[in-house]
Amino acid sequence: MVFLETLLPIFAVIALGWLIVRSGYLGADVVAPAGQIVVRVALPAVIFLALATTRVQDTFDPGFLLAYAVGSLAVMGICFGIARQALGLSLPVASVVALGVSMANSGFLGFPIGQALLGADAAIRVFAHCLIVENLVILPIALTLLALAGDDGVASLRTRLARDVLRNPLMIALVAGGAVSALGASLPAPAQSALDLLARMSAPLALLVIGGMLASLPATGSVRAVALVVGGKLVLHPLAVGAGVLLVPGVSPVMAAGGVLFAAMPMITIFPLLATRVGQARFAAFGLLVATLGGFITLQFVIFGLGLAQP
Prior knowledge:
Elements: H1 2-22, H2 31-52, H3 62-86, H4 91-102, H5 106-118, H6 120-149, H7 154-167, H8 169-183, H9 189-200, H10 202-214, H11 223-247, H12 253-263, H13 271-275, H14 281-305
């Protein structure tokens, strides 16, 4: 029932996006602009509206932040060590693996699937927390590894990271929505309606973007490296986050389930773009392709394991 009622419609929209681009009905050049609409308009509207209309004390969960951060950092370190010591992969490849296994596709896949399984309110809350951890903890460490493996200077990287975080529309929406909530202000009804309209398009458009992007990804790369980054992302990351939410006291069952569910998603869509910095874009693209297809299977086990399956 989970397959038919939740995952099948979601992956059907992804398949439609793939078919649209693969058939030439729309060119691959439309994927990036559509993705920017999701990241810069629709998802910020989702985050801002949810936080601005919720009491701040009902939104922030420091225990979950700690659990998700510890789980993500653990899988990053484990897979980096396996890549370097057990498999003998180069530092650039190992750094890309570390990034891929620890950064989930929270916005394009996690939120739509979480919305269907957890409900909109819980999915937005989990998404907001994952966004904080990914942007303030995981991404800076992963990009530092890439800088050390490539030609970028760490000093210039720090400046770029600070700039990117400050300009990230998702982080801006998170801070702005939290501020409105903390001040106890109310949004005018027309503003809420407009934001709600923008928020509704985030999930379907994000799924179409995923499919269109997959249609143009190259299928080449080291089998060992791809197996490690895919297995680490789809299996080890949710297991590590699951251990984290069990060990950290005070994490609610809904947040715990949401954290594991989001961690079970494939890696972020910009994974190949970030891997370009160390000349590993084709490997990263292949890993993203395999992980997205593999997630169609592994997510069913995660959903059943979390007790989210519909009777």
